[in-house]
Specification:
Blueprint (H helix, E strand, L loop, with lengths): L3 E5 L8 H10 L4 E5 L9 H13 L3 E6 L11 H10 L3 E4 L11 H19 L4 E4 L10 H10 L4 E4 L7 H11 L3 E6 L15 H13 L6 E4 L10 H15 L1
Helix pairs in contact: 2-3, 5-6, 6-7, 7-8
Length: about 250
């Protein structure tokens, strides 16, 4: 399976949803993950339906809904599922709380696992899969703790992205530890911390990732550009060309 190149709409929060659609189509990408903070607010199903129509009318697909559902922080999943359904998204990205794994108590783990099990059941009843954000300051801030959650809640999948400041080797080892449960990747080049670079400036990392993903038994479905240099829509076409090239070279 060849991964679909796409865009996270949060990359361009300053644009309208319609402008995001136009830029994504012009860049030769295939799918959009619509964010729940600006472009498609949770519960606003009328707006979600409008955005869905704009997306498909441009020849694109909605691959997922990027929510900010965090058990214990933002804990109402139903409006999120309503918007995902109106978008036609079969996957919702969620967050594993707001506490890093190193600081999480046994009680916090138990609460999170129980809540995520309920959330996964809520979503499954509507034909939607939940996927964890792989991110610092959550229980999915390491490959090992992400695997623990995935083992406890088998209905979940996870996203993958390189941890900030991780070497190529470390980041790719994290992916390898999770690859059978990774449904999408957030693609960006930051180095040495959160300094944004052009995508090609971490070419060895991303070529390594796409090579590994192409050999996985179940490759991630989507590779989604996120947070380009200076939030500049003017470089999206070039970044998309880089992404598409890596995907095709690894196929």
């Amino acid at each position: 399976m060849i991964m679909r190149p796409g865009l996270c709409s949060v990359t361009f929060r300053q644009l309208t949803a319609e402008q995001v659609v136009e830029a994504t189509a012009a860049a030769g990408l295939e799918v959009i993950e619509w964010g729940g903070d600006v472009h498609v607010p949770p519960g606003d199903t009328a707006r979600a339906a409008e955005v869905a129509r704009a997306t498909t009318d441009a020849g694109l697909a909605v691959c997922s809904y990027g929510s900010y559902f965090r058990p214990g922080v933002q804990d109402d999943l139903e409006p999120v599922l309503d918007s995902a359904a109106a978008l036609g998204a079969d996957r919702v990205r969620i967050w594993a709380g707001g506490v890093g794994s190193a600081d999480a108590s046994d009680e916090h783990w138990a609460t999170m696992i129980a809540r995520l099990k309920v959330a996964a059941e809520q979503a499954a009843a509507r034909g939607i899969m939940l996927a964890l954000e792989y991110h610092s300051r959550t229980l999915t801030d390491t490959a090992a703790t992400t695997r623990r959650l995935l083992n406890e809640v088998p209905a979940l999948s996870t996203y993958w992205q390189p941890n900030v400041a991780a070497s190529d080797e470390s980041a790719l080892a994290d992916y390898a530890a999770l690859q059978d449960r990774v449904s999408a990747a957030h693609v960006f080049s930051w180095w040495p911390q959160a300094e944004r670079l052009r995508l090609h400036e971490r070419e060895s990392l991303w070529r390594g990732f796409f090579s590994a993903a192409s050999r996985a038994a179940v490759p991630p479905r989507d590779a989604l550009l996120e947070f380009v240099l200076d939030d500049d829509p003017g470089i999206l076409a070039a970044e998309a060309a880089t992404l598409r090239g890596w995907i095709m070279d690894a196929a």
